[in-house]
């Protein structure tokens, strides 16, 4: 990439030698970070405009979160759910209150939250809705990304994610994203849930047509079907509201949360729902050794408290408007489209100029870290602590990359 790199090439080679090639990382080897900035092993500074796929909404090493982690490390780290620990109730109550729901079920990764939602919806379908045993179906959207387990990739429409990993879990119907008529047609007496992302992040920050989420809510209510909103990437301030569903004042039956819930420190995920839904689970039916552990809860309590101030949502809304206004000016200047909400943008690069990967490589050379998806799209999702100056600088670098193509 650049001449002044000393340790980077060999560190990249070592990493490639000793790990499966399930990722294609940019050749940047990060060794420290603070706020929006990261530093690599050769001392180069970058602005992190991926923010761990939104796991770093509060920036790298937010002081409040780091302090909570340190304090908890010195007291208690793991009990398993065989016992109760002193951080558990506060975390569950405060997260449930943030979500406006009766209760939560903590897990670790986003995929586990999705698996939890699927299991709960199926059991709810059999025990509450009265679907005949083994016949429950869940309707999902084309272009979805909900994680990497064998069940979740069973209903992926991305061949890289799905092919060669069968046999696939049955019980899912796929409809076009944003198409309410198709959704209505797919729902029948066996349908227990509709599972969608309110904005499709991995697909390229695809925002559904206005009224879609409201329509999904109405349909689910009318047909006695659970609305499961996967807010793992879109939630917790990313779009300028606590949840992306808030933009249409829509309340799903279940929020699926992850990524930023762990404050960029520990993997923490959860589902939040009312008692009539989550109450279907009985001891022994679901769980996780690390889910809801003391360290996770101590950090996540502070995450919830940061969100409860509303400051991060406000920053995302205001700075996001600034970012989108600046990006719109590049449409026709190397970008063919810009989508998104708040501090979250999907940019389609003119494919005649370069691929998304090439754009990210050139941005990295200019000190901006971003990630491509699906050929010619790149995503920008800076930490919500980013400054106006940093946003302007990143957009200038992007403009320069597009000009020099
Ligand atoms: C919307 C959504 N759901 C689920 C997941 C899976 O989360 P994890 O990688 O923590 O399993 C992701 C990850 O990108 C996601 O964006």
List the helices and strands and how they pair.
Blueprint: H1 8-18, E1 30-34, E2 37-40, E3 45-48, H2 51-54, H3 63-73, H4 88-99, E4 103-107, H5 110-129, E5 137-141, H6 150-154, H7 159-162, E6 172-175, H8 180-186, E7 191-196, H9 212-222, E8 226-230, E9 254-257, E10 269-273, H10 275-278, H11 294-308, H12 311-328, E11 335-340, E12 345-349, H13 356-365, E13 368-369, E14 371-373, E15 377-380, H14 388-403
What does this structure look like?
- The protein has 14 helices and 15 strands.
- The chain has helices at residues 8-18, 51-54, 63-73, 88-99, 110-129, 150-154, 159-162, 180-186, 212-222, 275-278, 294-308, 311-328, 356-365, 388-403, and strands at 30-34, 37-40, 45-48, 103-107, 137-141, 172-175, 191-196, 226-230, 254-257, 269-273, 335-340, 345-349, 368-369, 371-373, 377-380.
- It has a 7-stranded mixed β-sheet with strand order 4-10-9-8-7-5-6, sandwiched between helices. A 4-stranded mixed β-sheet has the order 1-2-3-13.
- Helix 3 runs antiparallel to helix 11 (294-308) and helix 4 runs parallel beside helix 11 (294-308).
- It binds pyridoxal-5'-phosphate (PLP).
- Pyridoxal-5'-phosphate is lined by residues 53, 109-111, 114, 145-147, 197, 201-202, 230, 232-233, 258.
């Amino acid at each position: 990439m650049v001449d002044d790199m000393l340790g980077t090439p060999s560190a990249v080679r070592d990493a490639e030698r000793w790990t499966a090639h399930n990722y294609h990382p940019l050749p940047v080897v990060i060794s420290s970070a603070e706020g929006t900035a990261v530093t690599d092993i050769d001392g180069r500074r970058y602005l992190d405009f991926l923010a761990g796929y939104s796991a770093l909404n509060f920036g790298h090493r937010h002081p409040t979160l780091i302090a909570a982690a340190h304090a908890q490390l010195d007291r208690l780290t793991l009990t398993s759910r065989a016992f109760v620990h002193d951080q558990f109730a506060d975390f569950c109550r405060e997260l449930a209150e943030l979500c406006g729901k009766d209760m939560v079920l903590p897990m670790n990764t986003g995929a586990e939250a999705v698996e939890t939602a699927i299991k709960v919806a199926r059991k709810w379908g059999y025990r509450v809705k009265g679907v005949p045993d083994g016949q429950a179906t869940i309707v999902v959207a084309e272009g979805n990304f909900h994680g990497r387990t064998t069940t979740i990739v069973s209903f992926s429409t991305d061949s890289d994610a799905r092919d060669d990993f069968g046999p696939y879990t049955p019980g899912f119907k796929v409809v076009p994203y944003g198409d309410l008529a198709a959704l209505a047609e797919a729902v029948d007496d066996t349908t227990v849930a509709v599972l969608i992302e309110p904005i499709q992040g991995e697909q390229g920050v695809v925002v559904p047509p206005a009224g879609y989420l409201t329509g999904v809510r109405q349909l689910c209510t009318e047909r006695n079907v659970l609305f499961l909103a996967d807010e793992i990437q879109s939630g917790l301030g990313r779009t300028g509201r606590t949840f992306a569903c808030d933009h249409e004042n829509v309340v799903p039956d279940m929020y699926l949360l992850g990524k930023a819930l762990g404050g960029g420190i520990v993997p923490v995920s959860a589902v939040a729902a009312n008692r009539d839904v989550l109450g279907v689970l009985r001891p022994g039916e679901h769980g996780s050794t690390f889910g809801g552990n003391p360290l996770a809860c101590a950090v996540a309590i502070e995450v919830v408290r940061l969100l409860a101030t509303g400051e991060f949502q406000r920053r995302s809304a205001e700075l996001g408007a600034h970012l989108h206004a600046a990006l719109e000016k590049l449409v026709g200047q190397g970008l063919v489209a810009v989508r998104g909400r708040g501090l979250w943008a999907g940019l389609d690069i003119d494919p005649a100029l370069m691929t998304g990967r090439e754009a990210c490589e050139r941005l990295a050379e200019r000190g901006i870290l971003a990630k491509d998806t699906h050929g010619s799209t790149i995503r920008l999702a800076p930490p919500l602590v980013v400054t106006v100056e940093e946003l302007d600088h990143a957009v200038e670098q992007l403009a320069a990359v597009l000009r020099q193509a």
